[in-house]
Amino acid sequence: MATLSILLGDGFRDDDVLVKIEGRDVARKSHATTDLRTSSAGYVEVSLSQAAQLTIEVPRQGLTGVVDVDVEVNPFLAVSIESGALVFRKSDKPFRLM
Fold first, then answer.
1. Distance set, CA 25 to CA 18, 22, 36 (Å)
2. Number of domains forming the structure of the chain
3. What is the rounded average pLDDT of the residues 18-40?
4. Where does the source fall among the domains of life (predicted)?
5. Is the pTM of this model over 0.90?
6. Is 22 contained in some domain?
7. Could you tell me the strand order of the sheet in which 24-32 lies?
8. Can you give the C-alpha Rg of the chain in angstroms?
9. Residue 73 belongs to a domain with what CATH number?
C-alpha cells in the first residue's frame, strides 16, 4: 500500500470534504477552511494499493469532481476550488506552501 497525500488548497470555507473510491467513503475532512497565508486548508491522506478513480465532494458548495490517480507515479494531489469548480493537480513531489 502507498499513501496519496491530498492537499486542500484555495477556495474552502468551513467545508466538509469527502473522498470516495468506487462510491465508498475513504476519507473526510470537516470544517476545511483555506488559510490565505499558505493557500492551504489542510491535508487528507488515503492508502491505495493501485491506481484508482477518486471522487471528491464538497457538499455545502454543491461540488463533485472525479480524478484518476496512480499513487506510484503521482503520490501527491492538490484540490482547489476555482470559479465554482474543483480543480486537480497531480505531482510526483510534495506541494510547496507559501
1. 7, 9, 28
2. 1
3. 95
4. Bacteria
5. yes
6. yes
7. 24-32, 15-21, 52-58, 63-69
8. 12
9. 2.60.40
Backbone angles phi, psi at 12, to 5 degrees: -90, 135
Q: Is residue 98 part of a domain?
A: no
Query: Which residues neighbour 25 within 8 Å (Cβ) at sequence distance 6 or greater?
Result: 18, 19
3-class SS string, 37-82: CCCECEEEEEEECCCEEEEEEEHHHCEEEEEEECCCCCCEEEEEEE
Q: Is 24 domain-assigned? A: yes
CA 3 to chain CA centroid, nearest Å:
13
In a domain, 96, yes or no: no
User: Is the pLDDT assigned to residue 38 strictly greater than 80?
Assistant: yes
Which residue range forms the structural domain that includes residue 22? 2-91
pLDDT in tens, 44-77: 999 998 899 999 999 999 999 999 999 999 999 9
> What confidence score (pLDDT) does residue 29 get?
97
